[in-house]
């Protein structure tokens, strides 16, 4: 099993690096390839991934590993199809991150989900469908004004989709725990978001009623019908979030000394009620002697889980309301008389007794302790006194050793790192490159903490120190790769060290079977690969070549390792089914559909470019960036907000899709003339173009994005003044080029 996990990690890393290399290459928008060459390359990469998947599915040697590789390359082929669709939109200057991109991409992902029943396809489909809906309603490159009625419908749509998906996965019609948890979380996030966005009282009341009803219904279901600790904890957090949102709304409308006092009183009453509730439950504990033994054990287990959930709710609500009330009260009462000093003193009065008195009810103890820590962090960040900050750090360290529990240790260790950062900033604020220097010191400190845990004897304390030190060592090491250079080319060295260290640790922990440490290391590995997209250390082209070579290296070395260790794992032991053997025809149909779409999109776009009417328009460019498609220039046309638009809309009140008549002026520029009426006759100098009215007195034509090679956006923005557009007979348009004249 250890060898299996090591090889899986190696193969997964290698394929991930190859996919990142492909995305970076396409996003670089390299000018060395013509349009047709880029399309052929993208189609060739898709065929290559699917071909490799098919090849591995046919291999009999190392059956388990080859089945895994076949499945991974099948997923990679679907992801590369999405990159190819993004490339098509880049080549023909469609909107950046348009919903059509994710919609088209989601279709094969959905089909593969039905065919293979493979979790990665489920998750990919889930993400793509949500991106499709989000980009449709809230497009990145367009400004859209939604009424509250429409926002209610949009929120209802997201909530309904996730509710249905949760019910389907909960009934095991689709067996996917990640999908079940994701749908549950997004359902609650959607409902909670809707409780805070409406000005209309009826909509706000309805949104709050629905959110409360769902939280209550889930509590009943997850406690009485089907006990699920993970979902119950998430539901408790949703209940806590709801209470805090309502409190913040009240605070924004009624901020005063009396309000904050009432907030603290509320927290005290809440904690007291929590203690009395559990005392009452303990008194009832002896009344079940007549119950069947199994039923009694189940009821006891359910009661224990419910008790932890209630404590979680009480603690989260108490901490957030209590800390904001305490801080607000101090600032209100102190006025301009150094409120940070008062807050510091109160923080110590909260923290020290909570640390020294372990017999307190856990909910009360941790609530008071966390309120004190929150107040202390605010006070030491506010004042410029390194000595007081060091004292508070000592108190926090003392608390770390006095408290027990993984969550408690991680929380206090996090605060200690924040405290250390404040101290270092207070001491070295005037030092050159102070932020980079501070992050470097924090990296070194956490590295020493992680290394020093080996000097301790085995036990929970050592394990928690190891986990905390590892997490923050990797966090600050990653952060360091984004900071300005401390010494010449330090960013390069830190990037290399980070990649090598995280890769080595991932394999080390996987080999040892350390699940938590493996998950942390792999998470930071993937985060590093993803975030280096925005790092200006190298160009995307250089990153693409580097990542491709690393990907090939990882796959090759891992394959040699698997072969030499003779790790032959059966399908039943390994858990993978050779998808391409049992569903080859259906998978082949999906692949052909993908390639057919690429060919159709390219053919229709080329036909429009060659046969459409050329239109010259005046523009005003901007310079943003798309994650999948690279740098682009966002264009605002003179025909987008014409002065006569208001009058036209009053005469022809329409929304959504419209047709606009453009008229060529004496200077050769086309300008907005009128909205097109079906059946009217056009002159030789007029052309009809399709557009969308967004409700904010602007029209979008689908030609507002022009993709450029990496790093040339600002130059294009400075020089480009006119756009040349091809308009077809049906009104569709493609942006052909930008020019200064």
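^ structure tokens above, recovered residues below v
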């Amino acid at each position: 099993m250890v060898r299996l996990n090591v090889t899986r990690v190696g193969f997964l890393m290698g394929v991930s690096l190859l996919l990142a290399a492909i995305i970076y290459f396409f996003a670089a928008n390299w000018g060395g390839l013509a349009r047709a060459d880029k399309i052929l390359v993208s189609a060739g990469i898709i065929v290559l991934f699917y071909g490799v998947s098919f090849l591995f599915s046919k291999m009999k040697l190392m059956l388990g590993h080859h089945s895994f590789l076949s499945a991974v390359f099948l997923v990679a082929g679907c992801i590369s199809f999405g990159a190819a669709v993004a490339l098509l939109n880049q080549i023909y200057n469609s909107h950046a991150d348009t919903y059509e991109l994710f919609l088209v991409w989601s279709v094969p992902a959905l089909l593969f989900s039905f065919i293979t029943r493979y979790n990665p396809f489920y998750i990919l489909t889930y993400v793509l469908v949500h991106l499709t809906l989000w980009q449709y309603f809230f497009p990145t490159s367009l400004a859209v004004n939604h009424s509250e009625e429409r926002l209610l419908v949009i929120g209802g749509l997201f909530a309904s989709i996730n509710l249905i998906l949760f019910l389907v996965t909960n009934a095991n019609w689709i067996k996917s725990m990640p999908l079940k948890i994701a749908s549950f979380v997004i359902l609650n996030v959607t409902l909670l978001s809707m409780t805070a966005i409406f000005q209309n009282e009826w909509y706000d009341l309805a949104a709050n009623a629905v959110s409360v009803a769902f939280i209550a219904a889930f509590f009943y279901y997850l406690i009485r019908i089907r006990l699920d600790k993970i979902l119950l904890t998430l539901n408790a957090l949703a209940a806590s979030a709801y209470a805090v949102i309502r409190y913040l709304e009240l605070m924004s409308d009624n901020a005063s000394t009396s309000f904050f006092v009432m907030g603290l009183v509320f927290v005290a009453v809440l904690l007291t009620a929590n203690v009395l509730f559990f005392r009452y439950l303990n008194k009832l504990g002896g009344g079940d002697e007549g119950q069947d033994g199994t039923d009694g054990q189940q009821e006891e287990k359910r009661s224990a889980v419910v008790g932890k959930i209630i404590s979680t709710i009480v603690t989260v609500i108490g901490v957030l309301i209590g800390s904001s009330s305490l801080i607000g009260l101090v600032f209100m009462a102190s006025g301009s008389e150094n409120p940070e000093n008062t807050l510091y003193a109160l923080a110590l009065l909260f923290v020290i007794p909570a640390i020294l008195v372990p017999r307190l009810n856990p909910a009360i103890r941790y609530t008071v302790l966390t309120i004190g820590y929150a107040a202390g962090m605010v006070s030491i960040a506010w004042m410029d006194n390194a000595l007081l900050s060091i004292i508070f750090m000592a108190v926090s360290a003392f608390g770390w050793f006095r408290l027990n529990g993984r969550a408690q240790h991680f929380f206090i260790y996090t605060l200690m790192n924040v405290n250390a950062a404040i101290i270092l900033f207070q001491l070295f604020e005037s030092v050159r490159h102070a932020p980079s220097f501070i992050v470097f010191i924090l990296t070194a400190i956490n590295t020493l903490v992680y290394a020093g845990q080996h000097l301790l004897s085995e036990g929970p304390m050592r394990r928690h120190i190891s986990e905390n030190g590892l997490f923050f060592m990797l966090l600050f090491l990653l952060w360091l790769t984004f900071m300005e250079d401390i010494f010449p080319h330090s960013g390069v060295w830190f990037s290399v060290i980070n990649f090598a260290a995280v890769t080595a640790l991932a394999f080390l922990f996987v080999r040892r079977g350390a699940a938590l440490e493996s998950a942390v290391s792999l998470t930071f590995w993937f985060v590093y690969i993803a975030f280096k997209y925005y790092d200006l250390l190298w160009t995307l082209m250089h990153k693409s070549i580097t990542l491709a070579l690393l990907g090939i290296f990882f796959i090759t070395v891992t394959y040699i390792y698997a072969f030499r260790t003779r790790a032959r794992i059966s399908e039943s032991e390994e858990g993978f089914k050779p998808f391409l053997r049992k569903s080859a025809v259906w998978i082949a149909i999906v692949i052909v559909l993908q390639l057919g779409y690429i060919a159709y999109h390219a053919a229709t776009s080329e036909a429009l470019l060659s046969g459409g009417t050329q239109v010259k328009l005046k523009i005003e460019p901007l310079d943003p960036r798309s994650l999948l498609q690279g740098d682009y220039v966002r264009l605002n046309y003179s025909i987008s907000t014409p002065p006569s638009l208001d009058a036209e809309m009053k005469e022809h009140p329409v929304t959504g899709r419209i047709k606009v008549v453009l008229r060529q002026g004496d200077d050769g520029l086309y300008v907005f003339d009128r909205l097109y009426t079906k059946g009217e006759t056009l002159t030789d100098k007029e052309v009809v173009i399709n557009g969308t009215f967004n409700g904010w007195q602007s029209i979008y034509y689908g030609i507002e994005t022009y993709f450029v090679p990496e790093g040339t956006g600002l130059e294009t923005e400075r020089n480009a003044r006119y756009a040349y557009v091809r308009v077809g007979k049906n009104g569709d348009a493609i942006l052909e080029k930008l020019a200064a004249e």
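The mean pLDDT is 82.
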